[in-house]
Amino acid sequence: MTATDTAPAAAPFRLSGRQIVPLLIMPILIVNAVSFIWPTLSLLRMSLNEPIAGGAIRETLTLQTYVSVMTDSFYLELVWNSVYLCSIITAFTLLLSYPIALFIHRADPKWKSLLTLMVISPLLVSAVVRTYGWVIILGDQGLINALLLGSGLVDQPVRLIFNNFGVMVGLVEILMPYMILSLMAGFGRLDPRLEEAAQSLGAKRLTTLYRVTIPLTAPGIALGCLLVFVLSISSFVTPKLLGGGRVFLLATEIYDQSIVLLNWPLAASLSMLVLVIFGAALVVYSRVVKALD
Amino acid sequence: MEQKNSLPFTIVVALLFVFLLAPVLLVFPMSFSGDNFMSFPPSSWSTKWYAALPGNTVLIGALWTSLGLAVVVTTLSLLIAIPAAYAIARIEFFGRETLFALFTAPLLLPSIVLGLAILIVFVGIGLISTFPGLVLAHLVVTLPYALRVLATALSTLPHQVEEAASSLGATPLTVFRRVTLPLMTPGIVAAAALAFLVSFDEVVISLFVVGPRITTLPVELYRYVDTRADPLVAAASVFLILGTVAVVLIVERTMGLNKAVGKG
Fold first, then answer.
1. Total of domains in chain B
2. What single string gives the DSSP state of each residue in A69-116?
3. Contact call for A27 and B83, based on CB within 8 A
4. In this structure, what CATH number is given to the domain that contains residue B235?
5. What pTM value is reported for the model?
6. Which CATH number is A214's domain given?
7. By CA distance, what is B104's nearest residue in A?
8. Which of A184, B28, B66, B85 is 20–30 Å from A11 (CA)?
9. How many structural domains does chain A have?
């Protein structure tokens, strides 16, 4: 997650061109300043302003929006719902991704690249299209309801979207590739001979899984969970389309407050809250990683 | 490998793959629906939704905007990121790693937060609902990807050829133009493809910057799915998926997708 640990290793060969460095990085610095640093600081500043009814904003320095978020039961429930739903989504994503990652890790090299390509390819398809695919499957006249009605199990379509269930199914599927790739990165530590040893000493397949395979791959699990939790908290398109305006999460509320209700100070302080939750997730992650070492 | 994948385990994984790929695959049969509303399986088949696509002026207009935007954003991403990547991967200077972290930091912010932050600033300087505004907003997310891919490509490049060229009397600019740049080609292709796809698919940040005068295809598709339920979006999605496959094949041919994504 941190940008620094992926910084390219210092190359042994360097041109003596320090004089031209400012020239080379000036363009990216300007774009970064205009559309990242300035906006981020303005967002922080905006969260300290006072919203006035009708979308007007009074420039001041107050913690009013933060106080109202912390005391209003609607927002407390919103925050709790988001964290709770995203934790469940993370758990299910892990549960459904682990077998795929393990399978690919154990697969023949000739199958490996094809299976990896199948995992990566959904990432390249727009989230709008993939969410639309879930409407085809889960809608009132969708695939699942056609099967249920056809088999006579139900005589009324079952509500599978425009509720928490639909949002969960959609996000789990959309975030699975990230989890699988994180798990596969962590599976490097998994030496098949250790599993063999456990089994030759009499451990059953499941015991081997719980006592050898999963503990050895725990760092990959932790990384994947952090990534999926953070991505699910910040995802907007899927909760909005599959929630149908009935599922209230932090990301959808930030959008509604800023675009529909024009309460920018409140939207800004909710954004800051998302960043605080990110920070908390990162702290939990680094604690877990430290405990694993 | 002694641990083989057993048959029951293979079946479980096959079902999980079905779950993972079903939403994308079902778009194809859905696009040939003969119904006027979304119903699966369709009661009849037709190509009427494909016939209806060219007549939807909003979507077609948004498609041209998105294509133009992606081309401009990709070009600018390369022009801006190549010199920066060169400085970061090839020249030792004070604050190199801090700057690299700063330039890739926008990826750490959720796009909903970044979108709101950009809205607040762009409203004040008249960039909302303009083409330059969309270009600047997209560059924030494409530049970190381009910079990373290019810096990685540069740092894994053998430098002996460059040293040889400069010891034979080539000026630094000539070395860069005639030696470094051609050697970087696979990295440049990967960075360009990534920037193009990210810009062309970007929806959340765009939602904050678009307006009555200008809109993009993902935004219009999002709005369409949000307000109406018919198979038109399925027909549009088929073209988007095929377009993505074409871009991926180009990258695969040039350098191999696993390498490009794995190192990005």
1. 1
2. HHH-HHHHHHHHHHHHHHHHHHHHHHHHHHHHHHHHHHS-HHHHHHHH
3. yes
4. 1.10.3720.10
5. 0.87
6. 1.10.3720.10
7. A3
8. A184
9. 1
